[in-house]
Amino acid sequence: MKDFLIIGGGVIGMMTAWQLAEAGHEVTLVERGTCGGEASWAGGGIVSPLYPWRHSAPISQLASWSEGRYPHLAGLLAEATGIDPEFRRQGLLYLDLEDAPQAMAWAGRVDKPLSRIDAYAVYAREPRLAEGLEGGLWMPTLGSLRNPRLGQALRAMLQALPGIALHEHCPVERLVVERGRIQGVDTAAGRFTAGRVVLCGGAWTAQLLAPLGIALPVRPVKGQMMVFKTPTVTGSRQWLERVVLSGGRYLIPRADGRVLVGSTLEEAGFDKTPTREARESLQASAVSMLPALAECEVEHHWSGLRPGAPDGLPFIGEIPGVAGLFVNAGHYRNGLVLAPAATRLLVDQLLGRPAILDPMPFQPAARLAAADVLAATG
């Protein structure tokens, strides 16, 4: 029997497995598809909440802790695996922001570099942006990475660690619970057992818990994105060098010149089909920010399922009523953003170590009990 069994091979599940293995534990990880192939692959890779001042203090604390770790983490993975996650710290331009005063007040409280800049400064940073801009807000410390490469690097790292047994294309059929304690899982490849089980199933987490009578309020929220292939540029700057955010949509540059645009927010269950309406909307948003993209090929259009949770607050901790069963899910649009801190927070609980920050806001027991009371009185 392994020490730990992790369900889900996204960034959250893989980082959890890595930390537990490095602490000397034997870990089994089961993934329904390919590791890093769902929401971790489908996102944009911005290493910050899009509008951090609009989030609660617990989310901000997780995000701040994680943001400081990504440069080292990306470098470590590149050196160890030969796969570069392409971490870039080129900053973020906010355009036409309605709550700029609130953003500036937040930056002052948390000592975050954020400044108002005029049109000249905007175009000095990104000369190809649409004409007529009067200025914006500039956050120079924002970083981004190429999330598919991050997933590939994490997967390669796990494959190289002797304490980890990785089972892909192995969907979980049911959680095995006996006398109030988790024993393991039944899968298409047979039963896997472990002393403790960690659910990192993203949008599918609630489905796994439902047969146990546990209603975890984590739902799929569809998001569609596209990537443009810009002309090859040598010896000068790319068409876009920095993340640009306007009207809830963003452009993300890649090191090879490609430009991503995202994303939609859709309540469509588990349907991941890209739609023509979203394609047209995303293209219009991209061209409105960077008109030259109208001349570029849309190389790929895809969708993913984010694990939405109430208030965007993930569930991190032990599931009440089932001893040994833990969860780390519900990160919504911030799974990659929060992953280093969210996984460290849970691993600290699993190993009995002091927590990096207050774990109480994320604990499933209190939040599920509150939801039950609300349902009973509502």
UniProtKB/TrEMBL annotation:
InterPro entries referenced in this protein's UniProt entry, alphabetically: FAD-dep_OxRdtase, FAD/NAD-bd_sf, Gly_oxidase_ThiO
NCBIfam families: thiamin_ThiO
Organism: Halomonas organivorans
Domain of life of the source: Bacteria
Entry GO terms, CC: cytoplasm
A Gene Ontology BP annotation from the UniProt entry: thiamine diphosphate biosynthetic process
Pfam families: DAO
Residue ranges annotated for the FAD dependent oxidoreductase domain, each copy included: 3-348
Entry EC number(s): 1.4.3.19
Known pathway: Cofactor biosynthesis; thiamine diphosphate biosynthesis
GO molecular function, one term: glycine oxidase activity
Name of the protein: Glycine oxidase
UniProt entry keywords in alphabetical sequence: Oxidoreductase, Thiamine biosynthesis
